[in-house]
Amino acid sequence: MNEPQPRPQKVDLSDEKVHWDLGASQSYAEYLQLDKLLDAQRPNSFEHDEMMFIVVHQVSELWMRLFLHELESVFEYVRRDNLDPSFKRFARIAQVQAQMLAVWDTLSTMTPYDYSAFRNTLGRSSGFQSPQYRLLEFLLGNKNADMVAVHRRDPAAQEVLRRALEGPSLYDEVLRLLSRRGYGIPEDYLARDFSQPYVASKAVAGAWLGVYHNAEKDWDLYELAERLVDVDHSFQIWRVHHLKTVERVIGFKSGTGGTSGVTYLAKALELKFFPELWTIRTSM
Predict the structure, then answer these.
(1) 3-state SS assignment for residue 170
(2) Can you say whether the dihedral through the CA atoms of 176, 67, 239, 251 is positive or negative?
(3) What are the helix (H) ranges across the chain?
C-alpha cells in the first residue's frame, strides 16, 4: 500500500482580495520609511555583535520617542485639570517602559570579549549623550544644568534641552494642579527657578497625604499619584538593569563617554522623580 505523498505547505490566497497592484496608494515600506530605517545600521567593524549593539540602542531611542510623545500629552491634560484621559497615556507609558527594560535582556547576551572586539571603534560616543534620554530626565524632574553642555555639537538638541531645563517638569505642573484644587503647596514651590533640582518638602508631603486621605472625593488626584509612582518605579528598575548589564559586559571600566561607568550609574539608583510620594507611604 502506497503512503500518501505530503503536500507542499502553502497558504491558499485564491479567495483573498489582496491588493497586488497598489495603484496610487503608498506601500507599507513607504509609510514606515523602511528604506531609511533599515539603512541606519552602519557598523564600524565586521564584528558580528556590533549589529545587535546598534539595533538595541536604536530601538531604545524609538521607544523613548514614543515615551516623550505620550508624556507631552500628559502635560497638557494635567495643565487643563482633565486627568481621566491622561490615565490611558500613563498606561501606554507603562508598556513603553516595559519594552525599554526588555532591551537589556538582549544586550546582556553580549560577552565582554564580544564587546571588546569593536568597542574602540565607538570613540567617545556613548548613551550618556542621548538627547532624548536627557529630555526625559528633565521633563520628569531630574534637572542638572551641567548635562546640557555635552550636546554642544548639536545646537538644536541643546536648545530643546535648555528649554526643558528652564521650564516646569511634570511634577511642577502636578504641584500647581494640587494648589488649584486647594491643597497647600508652598508658594515658592509654584514659582521657583525650575532649572534647579527639586528639593523635597514636608508641606508637599502633607498635601499628598491629604490627597490619599481624601481618595474618594479626589479619586483622580489619588490615581494620578499612583500613576506617577508607577513611572518612577519603572525608571528605577530600568536604571538597575542598565547598571547590571554594563557591569556584566565591561565590569568597572570607564564608559566611552568619559564617565566612571558602573560607579557613575550607581549614583542615580537612589534618585526619585517624585520623592514625597515615596516618603508618605511610611506615614499612612
Answers:
(1) helix
(2) negative
(3) 28-31, 34-37, 48-79, 84-107, 112-116, 131-140, 155-166, 170-180, 187-190, 202-213, 219-250, 262-266, 275-279
DSSP state of 33: T
Give CA–CA dist 94/105, Å, rounded.
Answer: 18
DSSP state, residue 267: T
Convert 112-131 to b/e letters by CB count within 10 Å (16 or more is b): eebbebbbeeeeeeeebbbb
Q: What pLDDT digit, counting tens, does each position of 206-247 carry?
A: 999 999 999 999 999 999 999 999 999 999 999 999 999 999
Burial class (CB in 10 A: 0-12, 13-18, 19+), 135: buried
First to last CA, the chain: 79
Whether residue 125 contacts residue 258, with contact meaning beta carbons closer than 8 Å, is answered with no
Stated pTM of the model: 0.93
- For 135, the grid coordinates are 529630555
